[in-house]
Specification:
The complex is a heterodimer of chains A (409) and B (220).
Chain A: H1 2-18, E1 35-41, H2 60-76, E2 79-87, E3 92-99, H3 105-113, E4 118-123, E5 126-129, H4 146-150, H5 153-159, E6 166-171, E7 185-190, H6 201-211, E8 228-233, E9 235-237, E10 242-245, H7 246-259, E11 263-266, E12 268-269, H8 274-285, E13 289-293, E14 311-314, E15 326-327, E16 333-337, E17 341-345, H9 348-365, H10 384-392, H11 398-406
Chain B: E1 10-18, E2 22-23, E3 26-27, E4 34-42, E5 47-57, E6 63-79, E7 82-93, E8 103-113, E9 117-124, E10 134-146, E11 149-160, E12 173-184, E13 187-196, E14 210-219
Antiparallel strand pairs in B: 1-4, 1-14, 2-3, 4-5, 5-6, 6-7, 7-8, 8-9, 9-10, 10-11, 11-12, 12-13, 13-14
Classes of the chains: A alpha/beta (409), B mainly beta (220).
Chain lengths: 409, 220
């Protein structure tokens, strides 16, 4: 036994000497444009006959091994390890590494990807919400909601109001204390490193369109006023724009998929990223509907709208698009603003929010049936009444006559 | 830049200290504090091995070697979140473990685990000393509760497979554990409540049947 003890002390000393950096993550660098994401694979889960309880399936040793490997990779490729995030659902730990020298992040990611210990690596990329600047006059009038006339919103609410459904809003911060949103936001979490959770315009506006309370004598009525929101802040508001990066989006998307909401709303677009695509594939496999804003200036409408299975939504027809793009109200939409106010918004971000709300209505009536949105052949405008009637059956409401007039039912 | 041509194994190490060393609700350190060094190796093909060594702060003799555990096995992912696990464990404990003399046992096990729940059956020909066969079955749960907090729980049952049990006892007995861990920077803080059922199955290992264990660990 004494010989064994000596051996263990020797091994311990060599490990301590090799552990030059702390195992725990440091803070994010604050420079996402110089960061890459390096995925290190999880081995299959197994028992470990270690620790003080006679063994377990806990993964402290596995985490230690992956952190050790990440430190080796960072040293080998002249990178600085700044953060990590375990993602067992997709079988990897995601390590954030900063490129300190003159290499581009794409070059560094390509180099690291060739290492057989790395599942894959990719640069942190930036995404932008799809909102036009708010109008200078933003009178908050409920009858001014485009959905009230174009979608016959009050008639839709006679058939469904989103009761029992959950919509994950991956966006900038939501003002959960807004009088039109109070009680609607069941989770409000921040995934932006180094910043506190704050209420911001874009996230609050999207949340209001989806689930603002109805019949409370103030503000607007959301498309699904009895749905509940998971507010997942992955984007931050800057001067005149709202941005997100791959890691913050991955963290929020991972949380969302793990929470199994009915709908995930992504009112944003940007470049393709394998990490996000992997998590989206899990969402698809779990039957979670993902709605994304379509950006006509980007190939395929931008990511994630370009991903198969994601519902791409625009505020205007997209005639040249190589995939189905739905059109929903997105112009001059009154909605909630931080600080208990309301304002007018424009853009595909808000068209996507309309569709997320509509899907919450559909899911209330048919929680697991395949979704089919009814749209006009020309232009792709969604007929919300026809869509909901197909699921809910005929109704004695304004929707019936609207559908008959359109000849869609 | 030298790039390895094939994936290396993953080597992990954890150093920890606990107020007691409990195995299936049974104290193997005579209720005394222990220090452990755990080393692990995971080969990309699914083979794995581990070595765990422990020392105990004895009441009268200072720090003494307590035990050594060797573990080897093979894990295979049979679905996105389901793994099959086969392996063997051999452990030896010194006389400072609270038994009358040095003890050892060997187990062969098979388990199935998902991300949150696992189950495992272990067959031993010499469970903690006596030459008799036992079967232990357990269900494990693990939950990441956010904010670097994780919870775990285990419920197990030990079944003697031969009538001539230790001190004539052939009854099955149960064990359970509820644990919580919180990461604070490089250190994890652990707390666990362990318990085991009635019976003198364990003979000389006569410490209390329930215990609260506290500990600290760090990855190396």
């Amino acid at each position: 036994m004494i010989r064994i003890c000596r051996l263990l002390v020797t091994v311990l000393a060599s490990f301590l000497a090799a552990s030059s950096a702390p195992a725990a993550a440091q803070n994010a660098s604050g420079r996402p444009d110089r960061e890459i994401l390096v995925m290190v694979k999880h081995p299959a889960d197994h028992y470990r006959a270690t620790g003080a309880y006679g063994g377990s399936y806990g993964d402290e040793l596995g985490r230690s091994a992956r952190e050790r490997l990440a430190r080796q990779i960072a040293r080998q490729y002249r990178l600085t390890l700044v953060d990590n995030w375990a993602m067992p659902m997709i079988g990897v730990d995601c390590f954030v590494m900063m490129v300190e020298d003159a290499r581009s992040t794409h070059t560094a990611a390509d180099e690291v990807s060739r290492n057989p210990n790395v599942e894959w690596a990719e640069p942190v990329q930036l995404y932008a919400t799809q909102a036009a600047p708010p109008a200078s006059h933003n009178d908050p009038l409920y009858p001014a909601e485009p959905a009230a006339s174009q979608w016959h919103l009050a008639a839709l609410h006679q058939m469904a109001s989103g009761r029992g459904t959950r919509v994950a809003v991956i966006d900038s911060g939501i003002d959960a204390a807004h009088p039109d949103l109070a009680g609607q936001v069941m989770v409000n979490r921040n995934f932006v490193a180094g910043q506190p959770l704050v209420a911001e315009q874009h996230g609050t506006a999207v949340a209001g369109i989806i689930a603002a309370k109805a019949d409370n004598r103030i503000g607007i009525a959301g498309i699904a006023p009895r749905a509940r929101l998971l507010g997942l802040r992955a984007c931050w508001q800057g001067r005149g724009s709202t941005s997100c990066d791959t890691l913050s989006l991955a963290k929020a998307l991972y949380y969302a998929v793990d929470s199994r909401p009915d709908v995930i709303n992504l009112s944003l677009s940007g470049p393709n990223a394998r990490l996000l695509r992997e998590i989206l594939s899990i969402a698809y496999a779990r039957g979670i509907t993902v709605v994304a804003a379509f950006d006509p200036k980007q190939p395929g409408g931008g990511f994630p709208a370009s991903v198969a299975g994601v519902i791409a939504v625009s505020d205007a027809p997209a005639p040249g698009a190589d995939r189905e793009v739905y059109v929903a109200p997105g112009r001059d939409v009154p909605t909630t603003q931080p600080g208990g106010r309301w304002f007018l918004v424009n853009g595909s971000s808000f068209a996507a929010a309309h569709v997320s709300g509509l899907i919450a209505l559909l899911r209330e009536r048919r929680p697991s049936a395949p979704l089919m949105l009814v749209s006009q052949r020309r232009g792709g405008s969604i007929d919300a009444c026809a869509t909901l009637i197909k699921v809910a059956g005929a109704c004695d409401c304004g929707c019936r006559s609207a559908v008959l007039r359109a000849g869609l039912h | 830049m030298a790039v390895p041509s094939q994936a290396m194994g993953q080597v992990g190490a954890v150093l920890s200290a606990y107020t007691d060393l409990r195995f299936r609700g049974l104290s193997l350190s005579d209720g005394r504090p222990v220090g452990l060094l755990d080393l692990s190796y995971d080969h990309p093909a699914g083979f794995y091995g581990a070595l765990s060594g422990s020392i105990v702060a004895t009441r009268h003799d200072g720090l003494k070697p307590l035990g050594l555990t060797l573990n080897a096995g093979y894990a295979h992912r049979v679905g996105r979140n389901l793994s099959l696990d086969l392996g063997a464990v051999h452990s030896r404990y010194s006389r400072y473990s609270g038994g009358m003399s040095e003890q050892s046992y060997t187990e062969l096990y098979a388990g199935l685990s998902t991300r949150f729940v696992g189950t495992r059956f272990a067959l031993s020909p010499n469970y903690l000393g006596p030459a008799r066969w036992t079967l232990h079955g357990e269900v494990n749960g693990h939950l990441d509760a956010g904010s670097d907090v994780s919870l775990d729980a285990t419920l197990g049952a030990l079944l003697p497979l031969q009538d001539k049990g230790y001190q004539g006892n052939s009854r099955a007995t149960w064990d359970a554990r509820l644990g919580i861990a919180k990461r604070v920077g490089p250190v994890s803080i652990h707390g666990a409540l362990t318990a085991r059922g009635h019976g003198n199955f364990y003979g000389a290992y006569g410490r209390s049947r329930t215990a609260l264990i506290l500990g600290l660990s760090t990855t190396l």
